[in-house]
């Protein structure tokens, strides 16, 4: 262990590095400062995490801790010259050929080298000097210390972890699997000390084979019942969540499922679908799904942004797409972006010039001068809406590009069918959207807002915010409702699902005009009742400035509020002397009071602001 005076700069570097490894999908945990062991947390194999909140909590508690990285789907060759590893590796390469000079590589604190390879998909174990003197292997639930950790010296990247993981040479794989060339199977007898590792390896193998989450969970629960003694249910539940939540590492190749050897725990099921039977139903643990944006959008499901024209919904969709495509943007509407990657932003409305202008303004608003290659912008696609071949080709392009989010503006323009027909929409969704979701791509679209039924004595129907067929809402997991309350402002509401209460988000303001290079979307925290009433009153007054002498019917249609709300606003505004009635009662119209009186009540209004939506 090295004794040193840890600088504040080092503490920032170590936290940033741990967060970056987590963002790449690797599980990390804190290790004793200045050393390779011991870990600072119990049960590190299970508790190691890629969650940024957990990582921050650990390094806030131990700011100088070294970083351990679990070798889940990695094979790391550890060459230690202090134990003769340099000579051992030279001898191996002289007989078999050199190891690839590509892929991640680390210069260790002791002067050795770590060479990273992708897992071959067969059962391997960490070993010491098995392939050659001084050459160790770290894999599975083993771990490696990673930069910028410090032991007898600093760990440094020779080639960093974002490099593509190379395939192990055949000769090295043969040496590691001389007595075990089969894919992982559950041993006949599992000792208490190896139960967690056995279940984890089985779960990762089943996940690599593409089995559904509930099937994997049932298999692990069934396997655990054969252990003597079995693990506690709570511990198995956490292990299942870990198996399902850890993404495949870059370059990971699933095992060859054509091999005859299969795991010896196979859930019962019929060929045409995933099936649970009997006790597996009650023993299966339901695991929360991964999020694209925490608290807002779940991965691999369909979501929507709904609103009337001018409600900033298109800007909001663009902000989401650009945020997911750029790692330096970490939040959307104040919520953490959990997944970054390639995004297809597709517009069927404005054309390339307008779409590019919108992209540039949002990017410049973030200070980003060059867009990431993750951002793919498509304007008015040359896709025949009725051509099955075009859709299949587009899906292949999306999967080949590794797209994680497909965001399109808007549903009415992009589907090419009658949206009032439930049967037609469902058929379109099954053939066009469902395959995209099954490919692991999240879908978010914009859509016109319907009219919420808010009549006396009736419970408001949140489903009616979607215009058209009821199946549009039924097949959509979550929606953000946008309701314009000013030229460049909208009130946002998160409509999670029709059976759950709506979650207020606040007021979205578009900051920056047409002539300015950059634009920012600023979210003001949820308004109180008085603030909401104030915003509604400003909307009424703004409308009457633009359209003086308007009837109640025109006001209701113009500001998009219900009749009861409009009546109450007009009554309050008249009582305060902000508006006056003109004409007989049956044909009454309303006009705004002298501007000086309105200003004394609500302050100056900029009626010349230009809408940019």
Short key terms for the protein model shown above:
613 residues; alpha+beta; Prim-pol fold; Rossmann fold; 9-stranded mixed sheet; 6-stranded antiparallel sheet; disordered N terminus
Secondary-structure-based class equals alpha+beta
Report how far the terminal alpha carbons are from each other: 60 Å
- Taking Cα atoms only, what radius of gyration do you get, to the nearest Å? 29 Å
Helix content: 25-40%
Major sheet details: 9 strands, mixed
Count of spatially separate domains: 4
* Low-confidence sequence ranges: 1-5, 250-269, 452-461, 603-613
Q: What is the CATH topology of the largest domain?
A: Rossmann fold
Could you explain the architecture of this structure?
The chain is 34% helix and 19% strand. It is an alpha+beta fold. The protein has four domains: 8-176, Prim-pol fold (2-Layer Sandwich), CATH 3.30.2250; 183-256 and 275-287; 292-482, P-loop containing nucleotide triphosphate hydrolases (Rossmann fold, 3-Layer(aba) Sandwich), CATH 3.40.50; 544-602, Orthogonal Bundle (Arc Repressor Mutant, subunit A). Mean pLDDT is 78; it is low at 1-5, 250-269, 452-461 and 603-613.
Secondary structure layout:
Blueprint: H1 8-23, E1 28-31, H2 44-47, H3 52-61, E2 66-70, E3 74-79, H4 85-96, E4 105-107, E5 113-118, E6 127-132, E7 135-139, E8 143-146, E9 156-159, H5 170-176, H6 195-208, H7 213-225, H8 233-245, H9 279-283, E10 291-293, E11 297-298, E12 302-307, H10 313-325, E13 331-332, E14 335-336, E15 343-347, H11 352-365, E16 375-379, H12 388-400, E17 405-409, H13 411-415, H14 422-432, H15 434-438, E18 442-448, H16 470-474, E19 478-486, E20 489-495, E21 503-511, E22 520-524, H17 529-546, H18 552-559, H19 563-575, E23 579-582, E24 589-592, H20 595-602
Parallel strand pairs: 12-18, 12-19, 15-16, 15-17, 17-18
Antiparallel strand pairs: 1-2, 2-8, 3-5, 3-7, 4-5, 4-9, 6-7, 10-11, 13-14, 19-20, 20-21, 21-22, 23-24
Helix pairs in contact: 1-3, 6-7, 6-8, 7-8, 10-11
């Amino acid at each position: 262990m090295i004794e040193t005076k840890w600088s504040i700069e080092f503490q920032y570097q170590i936290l940033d590095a741990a967060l970056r490894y987590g963002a790449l999908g690797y599980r990390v945990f804190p290790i004793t400062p200045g050393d390779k062991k011991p870990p600072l947390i119990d049960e590190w194999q299970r508790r190691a995490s890629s969650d940024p909140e957990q990582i921050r909590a650990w390094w806030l508690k131990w700011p100088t801790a070294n970083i351990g990285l679990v070798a889940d789907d990695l094979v790391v060759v550890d060459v230690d010259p202090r134990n003769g590893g340099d000579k051992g590796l030279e001898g191996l390469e002289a007989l078999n050929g050199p190891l690839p000079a590509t892929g991640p590589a680390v210069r260790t604190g002791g002067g050795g080298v770590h060479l990273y390879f992708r897992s071959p998909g067969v059962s391997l174990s960490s070993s010491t000097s098995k392939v050659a003197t001084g050459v160790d292997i770290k894999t599975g639930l083993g771990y490696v210390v990673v930069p910028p950790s410090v032991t007898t010296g600093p760990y440094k990247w020779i080639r960093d972890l974002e490099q593509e993981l190379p395939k192990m040479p055949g000769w090295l794989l043969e040496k590691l699997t001389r007595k075990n060339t089969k894919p992982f199977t559950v041993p006949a007898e599992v000792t208490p000390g190896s139960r967690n590792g056995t279940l984890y390896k089985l779960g990762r193998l089943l996940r690599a084979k593409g089995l559904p989450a509930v099937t994997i969970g049932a298999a692990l629960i069934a396997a655990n019942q054969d252990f003597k003694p079995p693990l506690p249910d709570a511990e198995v539940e956490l292990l299942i969540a870990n198996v399902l939540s850890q993404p495949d590492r870059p370059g990971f190749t699933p095992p060859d499922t054509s091999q005859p050897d299969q795991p010896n725990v196979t859930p019962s099921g019929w060929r045409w679908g995933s099936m649970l039977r009997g006790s597996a139903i009650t023993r299966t643990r339901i695991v929360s799904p991964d999020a694209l944006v925490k608290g807002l959008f779940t991965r691999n499901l369909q979501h929507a942004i709904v609103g009337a024209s001018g409600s900033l919904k298109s800007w909001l969709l663009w902000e989401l797409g650009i945020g997911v495509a750029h790692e330096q943007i970490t939040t959307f509407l104040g919520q953490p972006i959990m997944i970054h990657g390639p995004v297809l932003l597709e517009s069927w409305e404005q054309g390339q010039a307008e779409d590019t202008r919108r992209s540039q303004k949002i990017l410049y608003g973030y200070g980003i001068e060059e867009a990431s290659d993750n951002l793919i912008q498509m304007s008015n696609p040359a896709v025949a809406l009725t051509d099955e071949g075009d859709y299949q080709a587009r899906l292949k392009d999306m999967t080949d590009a590794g797209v994680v989010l497909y965001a399109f503006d808007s549903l009415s323009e992009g589907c090419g069918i009658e949206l009032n027909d439930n049967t037609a929409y469902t058929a379109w969704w099954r053939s066009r959207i469902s395959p995209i979701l099954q490919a692991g791509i999240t879908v978010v679209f914009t859509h016109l807002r319907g009219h919420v039924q808010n009549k006396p004595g009736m419970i408001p129907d949140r489903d009616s915010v979607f215009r058209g067929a009821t199946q549009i809402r039924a097949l959509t997991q979550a929606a953000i409702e946008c309701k314009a309350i000013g030229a460049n402002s909208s009130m946002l509401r998160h409509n999670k699902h029709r059976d759950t209460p709506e979650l207020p988000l606040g007021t979205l303001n578009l900051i920056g005009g047409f002539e300015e290079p950059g634009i920012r979307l600023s979210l003001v925290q949820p308004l109180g009742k008085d603030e909401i009433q104030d915003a509604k009153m400003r909307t009424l007054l703004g409308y009457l400035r633009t359209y003086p002498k308007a009837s109640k019917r025109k006001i209701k249609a113009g500001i998009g509020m219900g009749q009861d709300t409009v009546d109450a606003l007009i009554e309050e505004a008249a009582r305060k002397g902000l508006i006056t009635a003109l004409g007989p009662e049956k044909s009454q119209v309303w006009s705004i009071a002298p501007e000086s009186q309105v200003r004394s009540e609500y302050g100056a209004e900029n009626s010349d602001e230009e809408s940019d939506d």
